[in-house]
């Protein structure tokens, strides 16, 4: 083992390649905090997380003022102990998005460092359960797009071997139904159609809409209600045959436990950037396995491909390109399936020169 000697932190602002609109917001910016941890032997691990355009400077301040100084001189290999200590150090702001996003940047860097020192890719060191994972695409299913564009994108994904596509919902119910039906007619019965409401509905609306969606054989209804409405999710799950998906807006493994124990969801979409890193992500995924529930993570495909390959109950990776502008190679895709990298570390080929060029105010470092 070797102690942490230096922690560097910076943030870049990535603009989405396409316009992204859902039922409650428009995704116009991706603030990406990046952390590099160097140990006393000179080994380096790189981690990151993200916001969708707000809160990034607050995340960076928490890293700079609180988290980075707290891990100097710690044994880098004691990832679980460090994660737990940081959780209690930030007790006054936990559970919360800003804290979880900041902790994720630290934790993913520590896992990258561990993997690089071990000479192993993340998917093997964390479990090695699958060689590849099916892909579905979200990038062509945004709410502002016309029906013809949804159909065209789904047909393109199917031709490329993808197993499914996600459509945003939240228009008047008859419009949502017509849009889903058009895609279903085009792709046929062997291609999954997922829907995502982004927490837009009240319980009565979600129950009504679910009854309309059932006839269209959709793979799941994602985030139909506000994430903190567990009772509402229980009522909805009892009222529909549709699988209910939750998780991208949950920031604690305890929240996943409550959903699973109360049978308030059918699958979990735990996001490594929002739950606080790889350490809690693996716990949530294995907990879901104990309930015979699949994990289909939200976003961050470049990192989630390795985590999904590490656990046996990962069913899908969500295709939304995120890091192309700051990496030298993209995620490997074969016959519509995501294949994890065999390189030591997280499996992300960072372009550090481009990252340095794009960094915004607030970068710095602390050293022992």
From TrEMBL:
<dbReference type="InterPro" id="IPR029017">
    <property type="entry name" value="Enolase-like_N"/>
</dbReference>
<dbReference type="InterPro" id="IPR013341">
    <property type="entry name" value="Mandelate_racemase_N_dom"/>
</dbReference>
<dbReference type="InterPro" id="IPR029065">
    <property type="entry name" value="Enolase_C-like"/>
</dbReference>
<protein>
    <submittedName>
        <fullName>L-alanine-DL-glutamate epimerase-like enolase superfamily enzyme</fullName>
    </submittedName>
</protein>
<feature type="domain" description="Mandelate racemase/muconate lactonizing enzyme C-terminal">
    <location>
        <begin position="147"/>
        <end position="243"/>
    </location>
</feature>
<dbReference type="Pfam" id="PF13378">
    <property type="entry name" value="MR_MLE_C"/>
</dbReference>
<dbReference type="InterPro" id="IPR036849">
    <property type="entry name" value="Enolase-like_C_sf"/>
</dbReference>
<keyword id="KW-0460">Magnesium</keyword>
<dbReference type="Pfam" id="PF02746">
    <property type="entry name" value="MR_MLE_N"/>
</dbReference>
<dbReference type="InterPro" id="IPR013342">
    <property type="entry name" value="Mandelate_racemase_C"/>
</dbReference>
<keyword id="KW-0479">Metal-binding</keyword>
<dbReference type="InterPro" id="IPR046945">
    <property type="entry name" value="RHMD-like"/>
</dbReference>
């Amino acid at each position: 083992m070797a102690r942490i000697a230096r922690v560097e932190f910076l943030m870049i602002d990535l603009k989405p390649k396409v316009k992204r609109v859902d039922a409650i917001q428009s995704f116009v910016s991706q603030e990406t905090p990046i952390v590099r941890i160097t140990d006393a032997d000179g080994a380096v691990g790189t981690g990151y997380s993200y916001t969708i355009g707000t809160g990034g400077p607050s995340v960076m301040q928490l890293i700079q003022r609180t988290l980075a100084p707290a891990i100097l001189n710690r044994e880098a290999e004691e990832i679980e102990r460090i994660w737990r200590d940081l959780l209690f150090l930030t007790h006054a702001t936990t559970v919360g998005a800003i804290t979880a996003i900041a902790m994720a940047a630290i934790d993913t860097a520590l896992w990258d460092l561990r993997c690089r020192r071990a000479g192993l890719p993340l998917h093997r060191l964390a479990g090695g359960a699958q060689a590849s994972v099916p892909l579905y695409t979200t990038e062509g299913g945004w709410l502002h797009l016309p029906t013809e564009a949804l159909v065209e994108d789904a047909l393109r994904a199917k031709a490329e071997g993808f197993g499914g596509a996600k459509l945003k919902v939240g228009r008047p119910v008859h419009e949502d139904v017509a849009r889903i039906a058009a895609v279903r007619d085009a792709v046929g019965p062997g291609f999954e159609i997922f829907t995502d409401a982004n927490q837009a509905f009240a319980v009565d609306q979600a129950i009504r809409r679910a009854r309309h969606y059932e006839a269209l054989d959709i793979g799941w209804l994602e985030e139909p209600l506000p994430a903190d409405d567990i009772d509402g999710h229980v009522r909805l799950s009892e009222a529909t045959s549709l699988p209910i998906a939750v998780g991208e807006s949950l920031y604690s493994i305890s929240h996943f436990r409550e959903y699973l124990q109360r049978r308030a969801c059918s699958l979990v979409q735990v996001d490594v950037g929002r739950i606080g890193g790889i350490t809690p992500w693996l716990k949530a995924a294995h907990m879901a396995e104990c309930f015979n529930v699949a994990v289909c993570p939200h976003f961050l495909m470049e990192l989630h491909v390795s985590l999904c390959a590490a656990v046996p109950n990962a069913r899908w990776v969500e295709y939304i390109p995120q890091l192309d502008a700051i990496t030298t190679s993209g995620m490997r895709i074969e016959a519509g399936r995501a294949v994890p990298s065999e390189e030591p570390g997280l499996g992300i080929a960072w372009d550090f020169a481009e990252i340095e060029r794009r960094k915004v105010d607030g970068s710095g470092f602390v050293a022992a």
